[in-house]
Each structure stands twice: as C-alpha cells, then as structure tokens.
Design brief:
This protein is α+β, with helices and mostly antiparallel strands and 225 residues long. It has five helices and eight strands; from the N terminus they run H-H-E-E-E-E-E-E-E-E-H-H-H.
Length: 225
Amino acid sequence: MASEELQKDLEEVKVLLEKATRKRVRDALTAEKSKIETEVKNKKSQKKAELLDNEKPAAMVAPITMGYKVKSSNYGWDQSDKCVKIYTTLSGVHQVPTENVQVHFTERSFDLLVKNLNGKSYSMIVNNLLKPISVEGSSKKVKTDTVLILCRKKVGNTRWDYLTQVEKECKEKEKPSYDTETDPREGLMNVLKKIDEDGDDDMKRTINKDWVESREKQAKGVLRL
C-alpha cells in the first residue's frame, strides 16, 4: 500500500541521514525526510477521514405518517335563516395544523377531510343535501374538539326539515299512508295493526278497550232502530 511504501522510504532516509557526514548530503536527506513525513501525515489524515465517513450512520429519513382513513357519520346539525350548521366531534382536532382540516363543497354536498389526527385521517361525506347551497358562501370553523361546517343556503329564510334528501325519503316512508279512495274502515284497521305491532302493552290495552266500547255503542244504536 502507498502509506506502507512511504514509511519504508522514511526509515531508509533516516538510516542514510545517520550515516551521512557531508553537510550538503545531510541537508538533502533532511529535506527529503521532511517531505516524506508530510506525505505520511497526510495519508494518515486521509485514511482517518475515510474511516469516519464509513462509520457515519445513514441519513435519517423522517417517517411518513400515512395513518389509515376513518369514515365518520357522527354529526349533529342546526340551522339559522342563512346557514345550515353541521357539527362533528373529533378529539384534538384544534391542535392539528389549519391546512390539515379541509372541506370541499358542491351545490348539493360537502366532504370533510382531517389529515394526521392522532395518526389517522378522518373523512365525512354528506351527499344529496335537501336543498342547494352556495359553494362560495360556505365555510368551516375549527373549535375545541369540534369542526363546524357552515353551509350557506342558496335561498335564505327557507327552513330545512331534513339535512338530506335521503333522510326525507326515509322519514316519509315511515309515515302511515291514508288513501281517501279506500274504505275508511280499512285505513283505521291499518292504523290499529301498526299500533298492535309497534305499541307498548298499555297502549294496546287502551286501544282495545276503546275499540270494544265503540263497537258496543254502535250495536246499541242499531238495536234501538
């Protein structure tokens, strides 16, 4: 190796220097000795630096927090003359950077995305809003453990009985239907059947008692005729 060869040269120069008697020869050997010593020193420094570089740990790469996405449908809502207000509770949401809380609006929907909250991302999508909203006028606010979504009504001073069209349709399906063209007694029997299926025991006893008394009164009236 180069460093070993330099060391051998240095040792040989030292031997020659000890034997030299002429001043001119001694000066030349002294100069050569200094030159070789400098080269040896530089080689050692270079080798040491290379060893240190090899021992350095690889550059630390900051872990990317992917987190898994959690779909949420837990919310409450209220309204004013101008806005529909949707509240969703997320513990610690007020502590994440503002840019991590994003809401995208369309005329009949909105979707909320909260990134990197306790190692997770939270998503809430509400489609088919009951009535159109103003995309430009809608916004969000982050409060302690809560995200408030403000959907600006496109037509102000209108009341929303439901938040979404789907909710409205589901509620209307649950209502008993009354067909005016059918026998009124059939409609009444349907109502009584519904009560018998869904009502509690006290309600059933009360309805049955009233029904029996009504039938008895009708029978007495027929006998009098």
